[in-house]
Write a structure and sequence with these properties.
By secondary structure, the chain is an alpha+beta fold. It has a domain of 88 residues. The strands form two sheets. The protein has a five-stranded mixed β-sheet, with no helix packed on it. A two-stranded antiparallel ribbon has the order 1-2. It is globular, with a radius of gyration of 22 Å.
Length: 126
């Protein structure tokens, strides 16, 4: 009995240490660890900054970013929502909201198109 009590405290401490070292969990059940990397700053399209999309969009690269709890990452995480955006010289840019653009760029995956929420989260350029 005495030996069992002397082992109980170290076992309890080890259990607490292992629990503290494990991954953190967000409220949506998505596992987020340090391996995700830094977040991405996502900006809205601007004619002044990005130029007229009709002449410049072929120089933009369509890429998929991953949204987790309102933040965007270049690394996929289980449970993250895929959002397709453009990589330009000035960073990650949401596509134009022009109906003509929707019919023009065939490289863009319509299943991963940004939502109104994504446009609302877009950071303003300094």
């Amino acid at each position: 009995m005495r030996a069992m009590k002397s082992l109980l405290i170290p076992m309890l401490g080890a259990t607490m240490l292992v629990a503290a070292c494990g991954p953190s969990y967000s409220r949506r059940g998505v596992v987020v660890t340090a391996e995700v990397g830094p977040g991405i700053d996502l900006y809205g399209y601007s004619v002044d900054r990005d130029g007229d999309w009709r002449t410049g969009y072929r120089g933009w690269t369509p890429v998929v970013v991953y949204e987790v709890d309102g933040r965007y990452y270049s690394t996929n995480v289980r449970g993250a929502r895929q959002v397709q955006v453009y990589r330009t010289r000035s960073g990650y840019v949401l596509p134009p909201r022009d109906q003509e653009w929707v019919r023009t760029d065939k490289r863009f995956d319509r299943k991963k198109i940004p939502t109104d929420v994504d446009y609302g989260r877009a950071r303003p350029r300094p």
